[in-house]
């Protein structure tokens, strides 16, 4: 099916005067079109590009069909007789004429087609230039509007910042004025009511400390649980190898420990026998002078500790009425000791408050409550020494002054305090070797009880503390003890366990025991004794104490004999031995003899 557009009326003179019969297009009998029809079809295509509708111009007598449905069914061609030479020549002439007709070129139609193309090209160019100009103008307007808005926003921002700065300055000025007024009001208020709310503050502080301790304990347990969970997988992979190594290490340590304990036990037995023989020879003169042995002091302190438990703490805990007042007073005492600073006013205030708690005016405490509070006070002082004095030596001075004030004012505190010291650090405050039996004649059950009698504590995880932790605790408590001995009493002497001559007894007993001197703890405690009271003892006892210093110096340089050295061969013992030697030299340099 073919489509073509009708030809427009031509302005050519030749076309106007052409025979009308010639202007009519002859139908094509062979399905071919003339050159003018070809040009018209090209023009029609061009016009279709411009968007104009293209009508159907196919002739009714064309060699084409209107649709596929009109296509005739091809029948079987019938055989025709061959054409003659004349017919064949006629056909060829007709075809040649048709070809000439189709190849005819019309200049006007060509010119008309070119004019249409030029017009369309010019129109498209003008339209493109106009559109570019419009877009350029629109972009310029947009840029100018953006600049204007940016400048307006910048100006608004500057004004807003200036306004905020002004408001901030006004707010700061108001806050400063309010702070000054509040500080003035608070100062006046606290000056009026400080005395009346001090006790309540202490109770609240004790409660906060307890809550903080519980919270820290909970957080610590959570961290330990998380750490345990994180390490579980790795621990499972290494468990078998670690167990094998631990078993070998435990076996080796047990063998070494058993060998060392056996050697120490034999040396202690031998030394105890020598000391027993010496004490028997001196028994009569010692009784005449009212002196006691180190074993007697140990048994007496153990007996006092048992009396405190049976007649004090246990009775109070069994009685609800006693327990409430004892618990409240105990927490107050612990808080007071924890608030202590190196200030004379603070020391006197804390001392008087603690004494007031144990000796309230007009209403004395029941004996069991009083005894239990003496034990609580002694424990609070010792725990403070184990923590604070271990970290800072200077904190021993105010703590010792408070302890001295309480010992001077509170009856029975001397016996309880010394008994609690022996409970916390073993026989180092006496000093003596651990007896084979307790004060009631009962033998020790196992090695765990023996270590507990020496003062070793169990950690939060149930394991025993390390040797370093034990040594630090012993040093802190003994520094407190020697600091109390150093204070000169103003009213009257304290109990014999807290008098200055006790220092000489302590030094003589320690130097007489090679087993204690050959341990790292013995060297550390000896250094503490020399550092706290060495110079004071030299001033009091003069040349007699110089002899003791000479023995100590020889022990630190030449050893103790029988292959033993002061402080032993461990790294801590070697360091302690060096400090003892330097301290003896320092004391002798400052001596004025």
From TrEMBL:
Which keywords does the record carry?
A: mRNA transport, Nuclear pore complex, Nucleus, Protein transport, Translocation, Transport
Q: Where is the composition biased (Basic and acidic residues)?
A: 71-92, 195-287
Write out the coiled-coil annotation as residue ranges: none
* One Gene Ontology molecular-function label: translation initiation factor binding
Q: Name one Pfam family in it.
A: GLE1
Where in or outside the cell it occurs: the entry states: Nucleus, Nuclear pore complex
Q: What's any GO biological process attached to this entry?
A: protein transport
- Acidic residues bias (residue ranges): 38-50
Q: Would you say which domain of life the source belongs to?
A: Eukaryota
This protein's GO cellular component annotations are: cytoplasm; nuclear pore cytoplasmic filaments
Supply the InterPro entries for this chain. GLE1, GLE1-like_sf
- Which protein family is it in? Belongs to the GLE1 family.
Q: What is this protein called?
A: mRNA export factor GLE1
From which source organism is this entry? Lentinula raphanica
